[in-house]
Please model this.
Amino acid sequence: MESDPSAARSGTEVVAALERRGVPANRVTVYRLLDRLAVAGLLERHVDGQRVTRYTLAGTPAERWTPRFECTDCHRQIRIADGAAPLRAAMRRVLQALAAAGHEELAADIAVQGRCAHCVQGGVPGG
Model:
């Protein structure tokens, strides 16, 4: 994942990548490890438009509140920094209001979905 931090990989893709490298991988173990890494804050867990759970490297705490663009073709995750401060502030107020109502373990995930410029142009993502 460090080689391409914007790539959002599913558990199936992680298993396939390990096997391509000659590392035997138990599918259930890989999924459990990905979930544990997400709970530990090392990975971010997102569900894409096709309801597939994908994982990316976790950003800084401030970046986790940043909206992102998600390509529906290549599944790249691109953080949208411009104009994110007001949105982060609004989401913080929403989560604070929910916490004040007694809700716990709150998280917010804001994603805009579409096709990235590379996919639209028929190019290779990131290249």
Q: What stands out?
A: The beta strands are 9-10, 43-47, 53-57, 68-71, 77-79, 111-114.
